[in-house]
Amino acid sequence: MTVPLDKLKWMYEMMTKSRYYEDQMTEVYLEGKTPVFNIGAGTVPGEMHLSTGQEPAAVICAHLTKDDTVTSPHRPHHHAIAKGVDLKRMTAEIFGKETGLSKGKGGHMHLFDPDVKFSCSGIVGAGIPQAAGAALAAKMKGKDWVAVTFLGEGAANSGAFHETLNMAALWKLPLILVIEDNAYGISVSKKASTAIESNDLRASAYGIEGAYVKNNDPIEMYKISEAAINRARNGEGPSIIEIETFRYQGHFQGDPELYREKEEVPSLKERDPILRIRKLLIDDYGVNVSEVEEIESKVKAEVDEAYNFARESDFPKPEAALADMFN
């Protein structure tokens, strides 16, 4: 199956936007913080978990509509961008501003945009049962909506993962679990925490479909996720997709990464998925370099505008925050 050109352009735009967004966040997050573990409120408060390198996991959103639900964990930006979350309001939320998605109260790990049915939770595995609830609601309403939940490979060892899968398989819910295997659960390697080679193998225990995407391949992710979405819409139940993806940065900004090999990250960047899509567009699909550069310029302008919007927005007034608590 060949990926349609419009979808491939969307993939490149989404992945480039996510990468540029997080490249800017890497710099902005350090503003006003001390070098040791980034202590201090700074421009962006709280911890920061970036998904640089993991963009192909969000390619599944190419097959979703606004009526489909997505839940995300504590590393959510690429999912949010691919699902169409308002970038200005998302950035303002991360900055803790009044114009944010939740008026600055949720922050980076608790993004919520009901307009596109997107939410995320900082608690490991917490979005899995929430997505199952959305899938159950869709089935009870007789809709062909699906729910996608993203999680790290470490969360596949949690009770929420197995309990939800059992119910979803039993009730044939339109649920897809996308596991981002970046090889580390915080600082613990997958080999040291998981008894099987890949979590898609767990699907057979629940009588559902499972697939593994090797080498952070966005094209393969597109194909496999399309099949999973179609099965879900046709009433054939849930699926597990695990993608071998690569986290270029630490678990959080300021992570000393003592658990990683020094050569690991440079090696991963040689296989960068965004560069692969760019090459495919130009070499195989015959897209002019100028058109690709136009996509890149558009993305940068949109991201820059979102950051400017967040910087210029006001912080919530204390009295307004108290009023919201009691209303």
* CATH class call: Alpha Beta
What is the spatial order of strands in the main beta sheet? 2-3-1-4-5-9-8
- The CATH superfamily label reads Thiamin diphosphate (ThDP)-binding fold, Pyr/PP domains
Question: What is the string of helix and strand elements?
Answer: HEHHEEHEHEEEHEHEHHHH
E-strand count = 9
Total helical elements: 11
Which stretches of 5+ consecutive residues score pLDDT under 50? Answer: none
Q: What is the CA-based Rg, rounded?
A: 19 Å
- Using the 3D structure, state the CATH architecture: 3-Layer(aba) Sandwich
Instruction: From the 3D structure, determine the CATH topology.
Output: Rossmann fold
Principal-axis shape equals: globular
As a percent range, the share of helical residues equals 40-55%
- Count of the separate structural domains: 1
End-to-end C-alpha gap: 53 Å
Integer average pLDDT: 92
State the major sheet. Answer: 7 strands, mixed
Taken as a percent bin, the fraction of beta residues is 5-15%
- Overall SS class: alpha/beta
Pfam family, one: E1_dh
Keywords: Oxidoreductase, Pyruvate, Thiamine pyrophosphate
Domain Dehydrogenase E1 component: 46-319
Protein name: Pyruvate dehydrogenase E1 component subunit alpha
